[in-house]
Amino acid sequence: YTRSVLMEFSPDGTLLDSQVVRSAIRSRHRFTYDEVDQVLEHPRTWKRKLDREVWELVPRMRDLAMLLRRRRLEQGAIELALPEVKIVLDEQGRVAGARVIRHTVSHQIIEEFMLAANRAVAETLVNRHVLFLRRIHEPPSPIKLRALTEFVRLLGIPCSSLESRFEIKRVLEQVAGQPTEYAVNYAVLRSMQKAVYSPREIGHYALNWPHYCHFTSPIRRYPDLVIHRMFAEWEQGHKPVSERGWLRALGEHCSEREQRAEAAERELVKLKLLHYLHDRIGYRMQAVITGVEEFGLFAQGVEIPAEGFIAVSSLHDDHYRFDPASRCLIGFRQGHKFRLGDPVVVEVAHVDLARRELEFRLVGTPPATRRAQAPGSRPKPSRKKAQAAASADWQAPPKKRKKKKSKKAKKSKKKQK
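The structure corresponding to this sequence follows.
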């Protein structure tokens, strides 16, 4: 048994009508996300495996979801590309690996339908003139947006003021798939307020919607259950409790619990990754710089998304100074720079499970991240050396062997003696 939102959309994605009803689920077929992606990519292969109605429904779901998604983004919704870590366990429950979850079409279908249902429920409650527990997202402060604008420009990305949501969207689209994508998305996230639960009618900044609430997960989120109970009260002929003080206190409590749960989840994922790398000292991986400080760099692996620290004292190729304006480490002699978003290659140097700390050792950097050298610095490496540095696993260059002296040089040295 469940509670459903039945919605009718026009061909252009406009919501024409919605109803919140009690219902029962009868599954015709249970899919995983990967299976839905396979049905969409290889429909002929799946035609014999599925009922005709189910086989025809999946691509129609995709078409509607992509229509709603395109309409939502065109209307100003801001969407960040932030990695979500999936821990892979073996049969004994030990960490066998980790990967970043790809946000595929199947995920987007569910996301768009959930967003549409949540919005429809919020608008239904608004039309009934009752207070309810909203999911709100306050606009970021102008000071943070100005700082974000300066940071993006320092990365070499031309932009006007990011106080415009559409300019933020344009910058995010511009860096998609680029080395700076990770840094820019996290910088935008840090400039934003946290979404919370509250009866205040201030809308949702990221979605750019005036009315929004959480409805679709009553089993795992208490705010959703509160909304379900309001509809149950109406069905029984009672007016639901919607007192502002009670809703405000409930919203604060639920927001605080949500933030604690998210922090606990992050700590668990971090600990699992540290356990995985504990027995893999020397393991090399491609990574992206996620933080630059005077005392060193923070980098996160690409394939195994563990974040570690690279001490500036371990960078032996040069002496580095910290530029707080551009948040870069800049070498004195060779002019190398390390900044947010730069790709690097690291190896696991030390894992401290008790302190939950991971230390990396910098192995190399792709040639594209090497900056132009300062006047009077050492000459650029030869073409062969540059190609060797660009090898697949970024091996450190071998130590130079001492050249054997010729017989003539030995004789001349004896004469000098």
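Residues 367-403 have pLDDT under 50 and may be disordered.
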